[in-house]
């Protein structure tokens, strides 16, 4: 088996290796939503009015007066004085067009054969009942409702119910820990939580309410919690307390209720999404109703080539931005069928995803490089067993994709017949910024592509000067776009510091967005994103702050100091490497290692689990006392080390190197 795979890979490599570029298939171009290369010039010449093209994808209660207000930059405002409701745009208007019987969400559960289909009419009813229940619970306009839910239908339903009544949501990834939940609820002053009893992971029921309760115990203000019964009789027999209500009871009390969508200003907050940054405190990224929704809809149409009659599948979790923009808001705004999968790709078998593509005739698949590398490792026979001919387009997001994985995806999933869009963007950008347009652009494996029309992304040196083709530098975005974050929740100063300080020139009112990624540019202006240049690492496409992990490790008794870096990892892209100094009297032994791993899982979640814990007597530091993270990264990657003479303690390097190798 293994041998066959390798042979086949070698052959594929030999044939595709030479090929650096790929043209969009003719059959795709003919039907593409966007196929006129003139769109780049058109957007540039008409900027910022070009963005009306995105706004026109929505129904507005009141037309905006101005596309962009730059007067208080970088606090930009888009579609000024426009009024709309996101839930209306994602549901009601499709029903008004007579499409109520068409499928909005195909939900595929982890247990095989547990599926649920929601038409737009079904979604309308569920969302209205929950919106009415939220109101009765006291949720008012602008109250932040936190959701701590796995991939069950109640998650998008709750998001849309919030949007309907103008209550911003803050979704916390279900894999995050109780601590992470508490931090986010406190930071957002959120008094409402929607969670569930538990969910399935590889066949086993997992207790989720226990974790939610542990988090709630740390929130000092009063809270009301809605609990979805996901597991039924397989549940854990939790008793709900006085502040907790059964989801099913709440909506049963509201049967048939209808809630008029609240008219929101374009700039009103639609949701908050917490993401990792350079400090230990996660950042509450604020997205708005008009700009965000129009941008999500526009990119879903232009880049993912989604049309109402498609069945489209993004395999991300809704707990991350990708799921917000490209499972919920973008696809539903366009009135398509969005497939939502609860389980993992390898349960019960490693062909589960291909079985789903075949069963549902999926037209677009949007997934992460980490998943593709896993598919590659499992072998081509899994997709080969299934008819994947319904697929028209493939996408990736979350981290750089290596050309080998790209080519495997192209051949074994796309049958050399689907364009691949490698989409670069961030929680903060709301939607995609750099990628080829699938009906226009030549594809270059490993390179995301040019900036999208209307997006002014550049690669610059430390002085902000554009660099020459072929060189590496820093990615910047020099003009605003509708999907951009508006601020960090209740922290305008940090918003400026994090994203605008580095390359802007406030004196001449020039504002440049800095995403904190490094990148390379080619002659043809294609951008290859290299990765974060801050203290954030990217594990399986998930953003984790090294400071958050370090503070969790330092919280373990016996630990004096810790430094965390990302080391290369074949499957995950990057993995967590922790270098730890113990307190006097403590041994760096297996016991402490386990406590450290458990400490990190408790503070953040299993995704942040250290791959290696290296105990050391010292950490490499500069003379000014800063930990040399670059060096620790090179050690983790077993790379040649550069000059270490600037270290205060150069001797420590070889000691650590030996420990990493010995592990
Ligand atoms: C959407 C999302 C953002 C960070 C970003 C970058 C990395 C995302 C990428 C990519 C190379 C791509 N990233 N897409 N790197 N190529 N196509 O992932 O948001 O979780 O906020 O992460 O992910 O480093 O800065 P988020």
TrEMBL record:
Keywords: ATP-binding, Ligase, Nucleotide-binding. It is an enzyme of class 6 (ligase). Residues 548-626 form the AMP-binding enzyme C-terminal domain. Residues 39-90 form the Acetyl-coenzyme A synthetase N-terminal domain. One of its GO terms (molecular function) is acetate-CoA ligase activity. PROSITE patterns: AMP_BINDING. InterPro entries: Ac_CoA_lig, ACAS_N, AMP-bd_C, AMP-bd_C_sf, AMP-binding_CS, AMP-dep_synth/lig_dom, ANL_N_sf. Residues 98-481 form the AMP-dependent synthetase/ligase domain. Its EC number is 6.2.1.1. Gene3D superfamilies: 3.30.300.30, N-terminal domain of ligase-like. GO terms for biological process: acetyl-CoA biosynthetic process from acetate; carbon fixation by 3-hydroxypropionate cycle. Residues 1-35, 641-663 are annotated as: Disordered. It holds the Pfam family AMP-binding. Residues 1-11 have a biased composition (Acidic residues). Belongs to the ATP-dependent AMP-binding enzyme family. This is Acetate--CoA ligase. The gene is acsA_9.
């Amino acid at each position: 088996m293994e041998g066959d795979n390798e042979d086949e890979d070698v052959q594929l490599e030999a044939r595709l290796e030479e090929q650096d570029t790929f043209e969009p298939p003719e059959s795709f171009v003919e039907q593409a939503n966007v196929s006129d290369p003139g769109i780049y010039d058109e957007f540039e010449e008409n900027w910022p009015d070009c963005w009306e093209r995105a706004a026109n994808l929505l129904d507005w209660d009141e037309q905006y007066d101005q596309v962009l207000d730059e007067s208080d930059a970088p606090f930009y405002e888009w579609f000024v004085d426009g009024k709309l409701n996101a839930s209306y745009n994602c549901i009601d208007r499709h029903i008004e067009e007579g499409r109520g019987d068409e499928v909005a969400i195909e939900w595929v559960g982890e247990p095989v054969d547990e599926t649920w289909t929601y038409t737009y009419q079904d979604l309308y009813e569920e969302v209205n009942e929950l919106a009415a229940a939220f109101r009765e619970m006291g949720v008012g306009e602008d109250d932040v409702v936190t959701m701590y839910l796995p991939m069950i239908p109640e998650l998008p339903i709750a998001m849309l119910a919030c949007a309907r009544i103008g209550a911003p949501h803050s979704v916390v990834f279900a894999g995050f820990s109780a601590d992470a939940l508490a931090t986010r609820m406190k930071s957002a002053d959120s008094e409402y939580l929607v969670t569930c009893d538990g969910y399935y992971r590889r066949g086993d029921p997992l207790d989720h309410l226990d974790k939610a309760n542990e988090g709630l115990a740390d929130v000092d203000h009063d809270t009301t919690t809605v609990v979805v019964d996901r597991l039924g009789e397989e549940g854990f027999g939790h008793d709900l307390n006085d502040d907790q209500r059964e989801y099913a009871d709440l909506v049963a009390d509201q049967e048939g209720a209808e809630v008029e969508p609240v008219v929101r200003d374009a700039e009103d907050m639609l949701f908050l999404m917490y993401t990792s940054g350079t400090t230990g405190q996660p950042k509450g990224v604020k997205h708005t109703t008009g700009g965000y929704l129009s941008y999500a809809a526009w990119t879903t149409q232009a880049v993912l080539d989604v049309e109402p009659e498609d069945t489209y599948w993004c395999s991300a979790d809704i707990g991350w931005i990708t799921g917000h923009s490209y499972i919920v808001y973008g696809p539903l705004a366009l009135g398509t069928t969005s497939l939502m999968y609860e389980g993992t790709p390898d349960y019960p078998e490693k062909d589960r995803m291909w079985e789903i593509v075949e069963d549902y005739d999926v037209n677009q698949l949007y997934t992460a490089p980490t998943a593709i590398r896993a598919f590659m490792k499992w072998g081509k026979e899994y997709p080969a067993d299934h008819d994947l001919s319904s697929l028209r387009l493939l996408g990736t997001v979350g981290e750089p994709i290596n050309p080998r994985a790209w080519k495997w995806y192209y051949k074994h999933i796309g049958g050399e017949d689907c364009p691949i869009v490698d989409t670069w963007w961030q929680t903060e950008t709301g939607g995609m910024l750099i990628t080829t347009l699938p009906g226009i652009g030549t594809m270059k494996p490993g390179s995301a592509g040019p900036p999208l029309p209307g997006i002014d992304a550049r690669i610059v040196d430390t002085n902000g000067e554009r660099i020459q083709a072929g060189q590496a530098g820093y990615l910047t975005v020099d003009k605003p776009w509708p999907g951009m974050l508006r601020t960090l929740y209740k922290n305008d100063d940090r918003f400026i510091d994090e994203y605008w300080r580095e390359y802007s020139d406030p004196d001449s009112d020039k504002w440049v967005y800095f995403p904190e990624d490094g990148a390379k540019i080619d002659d043809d202006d294609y951008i290859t994103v290299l990765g974060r240049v801050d203290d954030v690492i990217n594990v399986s496409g998930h953003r984790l702050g090294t400071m958050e992990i370090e503070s969790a490790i330092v919280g373990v008794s016996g630990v004096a100091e810790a430094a965390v870096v990302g080391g290369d990892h074949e499957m995950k892209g990057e993995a967590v490497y922790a270098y730890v100094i113990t307190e006097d009297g403590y041994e760096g032994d297996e016991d402490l290692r386990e406590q450290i791993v458990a400490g990190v899982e408790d503070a953040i979640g299993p995704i942040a689990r250290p791959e290696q814990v290296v105990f050391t007597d010292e950490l490499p530091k500069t003379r000014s006392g800063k930990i040399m993270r670059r060096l620790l990264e090179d050690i983790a990657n077993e790379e040649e080390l550069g000059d270490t003479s600037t270290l205060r303690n150069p001797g420590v390097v070889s000691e650590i190197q030996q420990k990493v190798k010995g592990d």
